[in-house]
């Protein structure tokens, strides 16, 4: 069976506050833990009033402290925004507090706009050093070597599991070279999904962390009792993507009855392309679509994002999804 994971951007809904969003995240994490989801990830974004997960390590600690068994982690930390030493210490601390439950997904995008990148003291060339930074972080979380004078405390020797995140072929190549699990951001940039997965599996080199390739793909899922109800809830996500195209990154908006009156024809085409890996409808409709997706991609795990305006409807969507069991597809012979 294919495992389910949650990607929570900790959305701040219109009329609500970050405090509300973080409380909802805690409740959702506890909910999906009871439902048997494997992991719960939050992501680093900055200067976005509609996303409350900027202090990602702090949010992970908050979620982990209110759950008991589910893996909690970053999907991801934008490593070029930070020194590997700081991230090793932060996640070493999290692993020390919640042993065996912490994941560290790594991305190389800024997670924000250019002006905010400057405020983060990010250099334009920071992303160029991403492979070296990943290996430095890996070493800081690994066993202390003879003569090593700089150690992450806590962190050294804890071997927090690393993931490479991406939406291009670069991440696939790096994950394969380092023998790390790979998560593709197909929930908003699906264009190169199949090609990236094929490259990752074909070039994968076994490592201490992983003997075989392990791939996860992000999808948007909205499940409700009827197709019509789910499609209406989905309009909040569609409005968010239209806002991105307008360079408007505001609060998560309530659903609308007619999305066509909200966006232009051009926005509809562009947003729909970005949302191609979205599965919306009744349990029967969503099960069919997700099973086809699993069969086509051969992924090992689904990372589910569900930015639903109404918190109760969001909890219900994850509950209905938990009842949908998907079978593993036949994996590529390249593995």
Protein described:
- With 335 residues, this protein is α/β, with parallel strands linked by helices.
- 41% of the residues lie in helices and 15% in strands.
- It is built from eleven helices and nine strands.
- The chain has helices spanning 18-35, 56-65, 84-97, 114-119, 130-141, 169-178, 193-203, 227-245, 265-274, 283-297, 311-322, and strands at 3-8, 39-42, 71-78, 102-107, 162-166, 182-184, 215-223, 278-281, 301-305.
- The chain has an eight-stranded parallel beta barrel with strand order 1-2-3-4-5-6-7-9, surrounded by nine helices.
- The radius of gyration is 19 Å and the shape is globular.
- The two termini are 18 Å apart.
- The model has no long low-confidence stretch (mean pLDDT 94).
Specify Rg, calculated over alpha carbons: 19 Å
Task: Bin the helical content.
Answer: 40-55%
**Low-confidence spans:** none
Alpha-beta classification: alpha/beta
Report how far apart the termini are: 18 Å
Strand order of the largest sheet: 1-2-3-4-5-6-7-9
* Envelope shape: globular
SSE succession: EHEHEHEHHEHEHEHHEHEH
What percent strand? Answer: 5-15%
Largest sheet features? 8 strands, parallel, barrel
Number of continuous helical runs: 11
Output mean pLDDT. Answer: 94
> Can you count the beta strands?
9
Top keywords for this entry?
alpha/beta, 9 strands
Summarize the structure.
The protein has 335 residues and is of the alpha/beta class. 41% of the residues lie in helices and 15% in strands.
